[in-house]
Records
---
Amino acid sequence: MERCKAFLKRKNIEISAKRYGIDALGAMAQGLFCSLLIGTIIKTLGQQLHLDFLVEMGGFASAMSAPAMAIAIGYALQAPPLVLFSLAAVGQAANAMGGAGGPLAVLFLAIIAAEVGKAVSKETKIDILVTPAVTIFTGVALSYLIAPPIGAAANAFGTLINQTTLLQPFWMGIAVSVLVGVALTLPISSAAICHTLGLAGLAGGAAVAGCCAQMVGFAVMSFRENRWGGLVSQGLGTSMLQMPNIVRNPRIWIPPTLASAITGPIATCLFRLEMNGDPVNAGMGTCGLCGQIGIWTGWLAPSENAVAKVGAAAVSPTAFHWIGLLLVCFILPAVLSWVFCTVLRKIGWIGEGDLVLP
């Protein structure tokens, strides 16, 4: 046992929830952002501006999402170069064989292949042959065995959430909004979760509402401490910046979470706000305005995922659509979080300095 522990330590193989559930998942989201998400944005701009080269550029970027995710996961696991580069093939295989739930298959199989590759790395004199071969063989062989059931399970669970939200928009609007919003602020990836589950339609809209409530909420309620820099870094960056403060005083999390519990059902029941762009946008909130771009692209040209999951169709957005988008994503989160925070400040649950960014 001691020899095994020593070997794992020497190979930098750390079997832990943090390494796999936070580091790897967070990196996977970055890989998605740098391929599928930015590709979708570029492609949409090209379509609206009638610039074919932008459409092609966006298509090239989006097509590389699986390798980008796998390589990003390997980078988070601190894989050596030969392992890291070999993960491109693993990601492509896992995503293709995982079907609609491919991203979850990529997460699992890229982790396994990376750790096996790290274990054999530089253990032989022909490392340049052995390490890539073992990494690719492990990842692709396992893809044949477990990617389809992993993908099917993720697809089924995502479909269940989407359909349940259609049937129970009020309660599911609250649940999805709160849970995805909390995931956004935690050091895990709400974007990767939404992409993996394929959230679309009303469920995607509720997810966007929850993420916006956290980001805009923290940005506005902490304005007196962090001023304009904090407003931008949290409102257009990430509410995850408040995690150290949440650990010190969990009560500061109450205002934006209550706001998400209100804006979620408003999005699903009143405005019927649907997020039918790529599902990764559902977990982005106001980060780079990706959530809003996803809603907009979904109006104009629904993604394949949205068509398959909720039967989405293109719409011509009216003033009602835009009012709903502005209220759910910006105005209501700001007002509600500020009101709740003011109350908590008066009763002493939130004190001076509790929201100062590190």
---
Amino acid sequence: MTNKGQKVAFHTYMNERRLSVIVHSLISAWMLAFLFEGQIFYSLANEYDYAPNVIVFCGLAACFAGLLLCGLIIKTKKAAKQLLLGTCLLSIAMSAIFFFPPSILWLLGIVIGSFFAGACVAAWAFYLKSSTPKNERIKTVADMLILSNILMILLNMAAILVSGRLGLAVSMIMLICAFFFALRLPTDHEAILPAYIGRKESYVSITRLLVFLCLFIVIITINSGLMYQVVNPAFAHLEWLTSWYWALPYIMAIFIMRNLSRRINRTYILYAAIAMIGFSFIGFMSLGRGAATYIVVNTLMLGACGVYDLFWWSVLGEMLELNKNPAKILGIGLSANVLGVLLGGLIGSAITSPNTYNPNPTLLAMIVVCITLVLLPPLHKHLSLLLKDHAFLSEFSELSAKEQEGKVDRVTRFGNLSEREGQVASRLLQGKTYKTIAGELYISENTVKYYVKNIYSKFGIQSRAELINIILKDENTTIDK
């Protein structure tokens, strides 16, 4: 491909990335502010003195179903675009129902809207995969989470400080904008990275990892459900503060994580976030119910939520290559998030019920924290085994071209590689496939495999990840071996 062609392709992908982030953020903001225990719905319900608990539970269950089933229904990028367009129109019509007094239509509207909104979230995986390379997906996900939560704050402020109808009207305008942006989404080119083709045992390990990751997500997001049912109602009298500050720590945490150097070990930050959740509930039970307490408790809790949301969103983003239908991976993973909120909400409702024994919510939260601490090390181990190539490649790509060349040259000399083996090794470290390497060096793929086997044999290793590990070790350590 010529330089001009590469520039055109780059701009095409960047345009798709921006468009998909905008569309998804607009739909997500509507979902978060209205469907997903949103302030618009609560404001409208309060106007009619309407108890929203049953509808909220049904909406969360429908969202869970939409996320889980999307991969079975949506199997192509074209179908994903059609779903986005159809959901925008359906959601606009559904939202109009809430300008009228409560009826069975409210329940139907929330359930149908939540199901298709959940499916849209999962379907976004097609655009996340096609518009962003793996090592950049954490930034694309962060941009989407930040933009959708900023828009959600604006909708919440309109609903809380003015009226639920104003918030609803503004959210419908956002859906109209999402529809017109979605019309411009492309459906005609493949993903930047080749689809994953693995052995049967690889798929088994992927399934195990996904199940383990989902278990981790469910357990840690139980705290989010507890927050909705126990913590937030305790500060309902601070509407002027909660309307805008609620998601601010979440946004800031994601922004900081987005811009961290890939050389920083994020595992320590995950442990710090677990501690933040624990301290948040301790502060909630030991401090008062004033504005200062709310700021402390909310900052700790939502900051931790931001860290963990970006963690599993980005992990799921890296895993999109591991299945022919990326909507399955993203949908299953995020359905665990909703399931955790559902369970936490049910536990929170039981705690706050006047007719039952009320256990200490902080004790329950600390139990969740302890279970999370037990699960995190094996989860990190499993993730490292499957996604190790990507993690190390990201770090290698942070080096300048001169640093990359110098490290590869030193290791080439140390391993006594031939000139051709050095050329192959260099391209392996850049994340290139055997087919791409063969094309660049004008040799066959079998010849590339032959050189790779020789390279691994000379270093006594068995994978590209181990080769990258050698490259990234301290220079003196490598030479002294």
---
Amino acid sequence: MIKKILISQPRPATERNPYSAMEKQFGVECEFRQLIHVEGLSAREFRQQHINPLDYTAVILNSKLGADHYFRLCEEMRLNVPDSMHYYCISETVGNYLQKFIQFRKRKVFYSEKNKFEDLLPAMYRRPNEKYLMVLSDIHTEEQINMFAEHKIEVKPAVMYRTVSTQWGDEPFDYDMIALFTPAGVRSIRENFPEWQQGDTVIAAFGAGTVQALEDAGFRVDIKAMPAAEFQSLPIAIADYLEKHNG
């Protein structure tokens, strides 16, 4: 029977969330603890990529984190981002977030209505002389860059922040179930607990990349959730498992 579950994400902001409902329905305890965190590259580290952000006329942003670290690094390197810079954002949320850094009315900001960079291609085609810099984490796929390349748009990838394992400390790692959402979370377990054996511990994973990382690390994946699978949400998949084993 499952009693204690590690959810490797921050605690939800409100009590009205699927995990609270799960605790009440199945009598489990959910502990929220992040196995990873993000830290920015220093200006010195970034310079090792031999990239000058001001050589580009446009920035491609796939997250608010990307915006944070782009403007942080420019400030640390004492680079004045010109008013003429264009911003191509994965979503309206990211586009609106830029108001934290720029006078929005003076810039040209483009964003996707459907969270797909493909939606930005028409705007890019209208500016054939644009030079694009794409802000990325050290852990990323080439899928987006390849998509631009397939449409004859040259994009320069620039790693500006990285995902690192959070140090666990001396507290015991004793859970009946572990819910993981990223391959980096798998890496954190291996780094923090190199001798840990799964045994009867149930592992729930979201996304094909996380599942693959777990299997590559020699773990058994008991619960899977991903966009094209039976369960598209990990809380729903976990609840289904608890219904069968704790119900």
